[in-house]
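User: Run a structure prediction on this.
Assistant: Running it now.
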Amino acid sequence: MAVLDDLSGFEFEDVVEDVFRNLGYENVRQAEQTADEGRDVIMEEVVDGTRHAIIVECKHTDTVGRPVVQKLHSAIATFDFEGPKHGMVVTTGRFTNPAQEYATRLQQNDDPHPIELLDGEDLREIADEIGLDLYNGRIEILCDETLRPYDPAADVDAAVAEAFRDIENIEAADLPAPYSEATFRPVLAVTADTNAVFETSVGVIHRINERTRFVVHADRGHPQVADDDVATLVTENLHATIDIDTDRFGEVFDEIEERRFGQTQTDYKEWAVDRLQDFHTTTVTYTGDNNVTYNKTCEPNRSDISVQSIEPVYLPEVRHTTDLKEYTHPYEYYAAGPSRVTAEDGIHRCVHCDTSGVGKTYTYCPNCGAIACDSHTKTERLKQEPVCTGCAVTERFALKTKYFYDEGNLEAFREEYTDMSIHEKAMENKLLAGASVVAALLVVIGLLVIGGVI
């Protein structure tokens, strides 16, 4: 395995830890690197309802002899664990015949602490089995599973039709088919345990015993923790993934794109440990034996944090763009079958101001294709239909601004206005006309009062 030759012994342990975690072993963690007593990686598995401990010795050497296997056998016997225990020796090289014979004899004699040997060739086969590719001594994440990019029981643009449903003045039949794109973005569901105890002369002042599960956007660049609603979408649908089938998806979407995971699994694991280390760091106030108050920063060690699983999957980001006359209205969301989390809603957004979000009234303008809020939607004088302030032609009649689709409609109303009676013209500004009537009545009443009539 020449690709692993440049690794240090500790880096090789990182690779082995990641491999076994992906194989489904539980509580995979490394022993203290300062004095591992022959135990480099420790993990557990449940067999027929019984929990077993496995102690793994990692040897980044050309050959491994019998003394290494014997030393591990002794370490297993002294390892504190209530239950069955066995061991593994993992190497990038090969095992000598005496080492193989010793391990075989343990198994043939039904020794309580048998040892399995994995050489460099075995490591490559395991990596292939779990969909990982070893390169430069690291593990690249390879994944062909995705959450469903659309609900198979509905049209691919069903979300767009639903979004337009509460837009005033437009019917579903008037909507053109949107341009639909699907980008398959890599994400990771990470589960990690943090167990740390902080003591002073007065005893335990702080304790952490917590399991954390979060979702990470894993595109190229810096990893980013996903928002809670996106994390929920991913974790609740991990059981219902499907294969990425670009040919089939290409028949549904106008354009598709598959992104690669930006870093190795080891990189993501180290990033997760750093993040949890910062997250759990806190300052504790306690009183010492001398009744003096102290402040102590409690920061867990990296060895206190154990990444239990890193589950890769693709999260479809679907973007629909609907062209209506002069405007394009985007609608983008993360999808998992019928479930989705909206990322951008350009349908519930006024094109003329910052008003956006559901729960408000928006009206479609058939003259220019805009979607506008109440403040930017008017009634067209000639047709008595909605028109937005962005495209309307305006002119004042009876001291009130009137809105028209175009110059043609304005000119038609000018001619109509010319032929109106004075009363009809006054009614073009009902507020002004009403105020005039009230003013006239007040004048009449005033005159009657002055004349002594009332």
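The first strand starts at residue 26 and ends at 30.
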